[in-house]
Specification:
mainly alpha; Lysozyme
Amino acid sequence: MKSVLIPFVVGLFSLNFLVLRNDVMVQRIAEVESTISHLHEVQGIDQQRQRLHLKIDRIISRFNPEMPQNMRTQVADVIYEMSVKYPNLDMDLICATITHESGRSWNPKVLSSAGAMGLMQIMPSTGKWLARFDDIEWTSAEEILHNPVYNIRMGTRYLSTLIELYGLEGGLAAYNGGGTIAKRWLASGKAEGVLWDETRSYIPFVLKLYKEFREMMI
């Protein structure tokens, strides 16, 4: 009886060991496949980021070839990051807004006759209010709003909020002319004569640049 049981027990143990070993192998293979999949995903994101960085660099070179390379890299980084952070803003729309707001100069220190400052033309009072939401310590309008990274962070937050409230065209109208006029314009069915002349021309100018950048080959 013992001679029959011993091989049976040994065989059963071996079978259980093989099953356990197979389970471990299956789990290990799944882990490896998951790691490879993650690496491919990361690689794809990195390649996409590099491609978009190259596109932003080309846009900057077109309008401000004198911008130092280290600043270009910082600007490209923050534009990419804000396009990821705010789903209703993409890189091309951010670049179109900056291009028009800066008078096609991409000059971080550009100043309008009304006192709006920097790449996204933020008024000091608006900038001081927005700085709180981005944990930016407000020191002075010149130091903060002429910093291209801070300016883009605050400008994109503001633009994203306005587009969320009023849609793309309404958001652009609000960014240029204020929320009150944008609401009145939308309530009128986008009737002629409601927007200020500057705001009425602002929207198609930005949208034209947006379309141009979206179709730009890299």
